[in-house]
Structure formats: structure tokens, C-alpha cells
Specification:
heterodimer, A: 224 residues, alpha/beta, five-stranded mixed β-sheet, 4 helices, 8 strands, 28% strand, B: 193 residues, mainly alpha, extended
């Protein structure tokens, strides 16, 4: 039976496809030119459609850049003086954030994977069958991400599925069709915001045809 | 102080808070919103000569929107690659235990077929109508669409109504709760501020 969700999902999928067909989000320059009426009709129609298909930008659809005559007159010297004092502070703030950003970006963009910088790596080696009294691994709460490295000796499955299940509310974070690297490892980078404080069960399943076989199940705990 | 510095100061004073609020409203976490807003102003500083007077807000808003998209993409790329070889998704609560694998596969196939038919039916509509449907999906009322497009509310309602009828003929009647396909009178007042 086709449900409300199917209708909504079908329209959302169509909108996403249209965004891609039209070349992704418009650039600031394109939108400015659109608001000034400077684009050729076909280009204006493309930008207009993109402003609709990105609803967060739709408010700009009817934005009209004022003509030069309507612009505010230049500030007088007396008006500029109070701003001058504030400028230094503003510039310093921006520079500080810039350096933080560049550091973060450098870390993310370097060849060395960002997650490898973490000090804590949980490594679970598969044992035979699901563990019953397996120890609970403690994860530090201060990290932004956790790298979960699963060494799976089993090679008979086409792929694996990993569910991270919150033990109290059963909320699941899932990766489907995970593939092993050449050495048999599956590496999973889990952002901290996906797993709040609490205890989680991690289920590893081997996928074969339409079946999923539970191979390993263990617990991790995130504390304050 | 030169003109560039003065413009930057004006942009900073006038828009930094507005940008942060805008990003938070779109679901950005406050600390991320602060960073994206700062990066936007930095980008504006570097290209300040390209921002025509009076077009500050559209320029900054779109720049912030695109930087935020890049940030989200980088985060998900990091999730997929950069030391991890698989991606994650939140799939909600384990609810589907009752269904067999065959049932789930059939269901997925049915949904995929519906998406294809739906897209084909939508593509047969006029471009303007498709835009209005997307606006309805974003939560705009026919009244608001009419105001944005400079046409009458009746014109919007009538064309949307024909579009829904077209979809109904092609893919079946929309089930109850598909808000954007409902065009009752009350609907016009639902989203008014």
C-alpha cells in the first residue's frame, strides 16, 4: 500500500534530482544578479527554480536589490567614528576564528585521516558467535568521533551490516552493506552526536542473499 | 580606515547575528552556525568588491547556505571515508521485526516503482506548477505562494488543484495526511503567522 510517506519521499526525491539537474545551489553572485534583474531569461528561470528547490533560500525569490538612487547616503565622519572603535574588535574576532577554521580544515583535508588523530580506538576482535558476558567497552565522552575497527575473520559474506542500538530506547544507528578492507577490517567512524551518553549494543551481521546472520554482539558505554 | 574596512564593519555589525539565527533556524547547531557565519563574513571580506551595494543580504545568505552545505557534505564524506570505509545512517527504532525479508523487499520495490511513476507524472506538468508544488511541500500556503508570485490566490489554488488531479489520475489518490496535496480552505490559514 502506498502511504503518505511514499508520497512525501517521492516528491522530495524529485526535488533533489531537480537540484542536481539544475547544477546544485546557486552561487551568491548568481542570486545577486537575479535580484538585480541582470540575468538572461533562461538563466533567471534556472536560478528562480533553484531558489524554490532550496526552501531555505525561497525568501530571496522576491528580494529586489534597491536601485543605486534608493541606497543610503554615505556615512558622515561623525557616524564613522564610533564604528572605527568597533572595527578592531571585529577584525580580531574574525582572524581568530579564521585560524581555528584553517587548523580544523587542514586536519580534515590532510592525507592522514582525521579520525586517526583520536587517542582512543576501540578494537573488537570477533569471537565465535555472539558473546553473552562480554565486557562493556568504555568510551571517553570528550571525543568528537569514535573509530570502531572491527577485525572480521569471516570472508564468506558479500557484505556486513552493523547496528549500534541504544539499549534503553532501541534507537538504531546503522550501516548497511559495509565491506571489508583487504586485511578483513571494517572501519566505522561514529560522530559523537549520533551516540549520546548511555550504553549501546553493537551488532555485526554478515549479509548473504536476503539473509543477515548475527556474527558478533558487544556493548560499549559512553559516559559523561 | 579605508572603504573596504568600512564595508566589512558594516556587514559584520548588521549581519553576523542574523546569519547565525538564520543558520540555527535551518537546523544548524549554534556553534556550527557561529563558525559558518564567521567563514561567510571572511569570504565576503575577500570578495567585498564583488558585492554590489544593497545586495548584501542575498549574497551573504546564499554564501552561508552553500558553506553550510559544504560543511554537511564534508562531515558525511568524513563519515564515509577519511579512516572509515562505511557510512552510517540513523534508521530509527527497530520496528520492522514483524516483517519478513520478502515482505520488506516487495515493499521497497513497490516504493521505488511509485517514485518513478510519480516523477514521470510530475515532469508532465508545467514548470511553474512544479515550482508551486515544491513551495507547497516547503509549507507555503496558496495565499503565500500567490503573494510571492504576484498572482491571485484563486489562480494558485486552481492550478494546484488541477495538478493534484493529474497526479491522482497517474499514480492514484494521495493518502490522507499529504499536506501539500490538500487544498481545503482552512489550508490557507494553517501556515499564516
Amino acid at each position: 500500500m502506498i502511504t503518505k510517506n511514499d508520497w512525501d519521499a517521492a516528491l522530495d526525491a524529485w526535488i533533489i534530482a531537480e537540484r542536481e539537474r539544475l547544477g546544485g545551489p546557486p552561487t551568491p553572485d548568481e542570486v545577486v544578479a537575479y535580484t538585480r534583474g541582470e540575468l538572461m531569461p533562461a538563466e533567471a528561470a534556472r536560478v528562480r527554480a533553484l531558489l524554490v528547490y532550496y526552501p531555505e533560500l525561497t525568501e530571496l525569490l522576491t528580494y529586489k536589490t534597491p536601485a543605486p538612487a534608493q541606497l543610503k547616503p554615505k556615512r558622515t565622519f561623525r557616524q564613522i567614528m564610533p564604528l572605527a572603535a568597533g572595527l578592531l574588535i571585529a577584525l580580531l574576532t574574525i582572524l581568530l576564528v579564521q585560524s581555528r577554521w584553517e587548523l580544523a580544515r587542514a586536519a580534515r583535508g590532510s592525507d592522514e585521516p582525521y579520525v586517526h588523530q583520536t587517542r582512543h580506538v576501540l578494537q573488537a576482535v570477533r569471537s565465535r558467535g555472539p558473546s553473552i558476558n562480554a565486557p562493556v567497552h568504555e568510551l571517553p565522552s570528550a571525543e568528537e568521533r569514535y573509530l570502531l575497527a572491527l577485525v572480521i575473520e569471516e570472508r564468506n559474506y558479500r557484505a556486513f551490516r552493523i547496528d549500534i542500538v541504544h539499549t534503553s530506547d532501541e534507537k538504531v544507528v546503522r550501516t548497511a552493506n559495509a565491506l571489508q578492507t583487504a586485511d578483513g577490517t571494517i572501519e566505522l567512524s561514529v560522530p559523537r552526536h549520533l551516540i549520546a551518553d548511555g550504553t549501546y549494543r553493537i551488532d555485526v551481521r554478515g549479509l548473504e542473499r536476503a539473509n543477515a546472520y548475527l556474527l558478533e554482539s558487544f556493548h560499549v558505554r559512553v559516559r559523561d | 580606515m579605508n572603504d573596504t574596512d568600512r564595508r566589512l564593519e558594516e556587514l559584520y555589525q548588521q549581519y553576523s547575528k542574523r546569519l547565525v539565527n538564520d543558520l540555527v533556524r535551518l537546523g544548524c547547531r549554534p556553534q556550527d552556525a557561529e563558525e559558518v557565519a564567521q567563514e561567510t563574513l571572511l569570504a565576503a571580506w575577500k570578495h567585498i568588491e564583488n558585492i554590489p551595494s544593497g545586495a548584501d543580504w542575498p549574497y551573504l545568505k546564499v554564501a552561508a547556505h552553500n558553506l553550510n552545505l559544504n560543511r554537511i557534505r564534508a562531515d558525511s564524506a568524513l563519515m564515509r571515508g577519511g579512516g572509515a570505509n562505511v557510512s552510517l545512517e540513523v534508521v530509527g527504532v527497530m520496528a520492522d521485526k514483524s516483517k519478513s525479508v520478502e515482505e520488506k523487499l516487495l515493499r521497497e520495490e513497490q516504493a521505488a516503482r511509485f517514485r518513478r511513476d510519480f516523477a514521470a507524472a510530475l515532469n508532465e506538468l508545467a514548470e511553474e506548477t512544479r515550482l508551486w508544488i515544491a513551495m507547497r511541500r516547503a509549507g507555503m500556503t496558496p495565499q503565500e505562494i500567490a503573494a510571492k508570485e504576484g498572482v491571485s490566490r484563486t489562480a494558485v489554488r486552481s492550478r494546484l488543484s488541477r495538478a493534484v488531479q493529474h497526479l491522482r489520475e497517474r499514480v492514484g489518490a494521495p493518502p490522507p495526511g499529504v499536506d501539500w496535496a490538500q487544498l481545503t480552505e482552512e489550508n490557507d490559514d494553517d501556515h499564516k503567522e
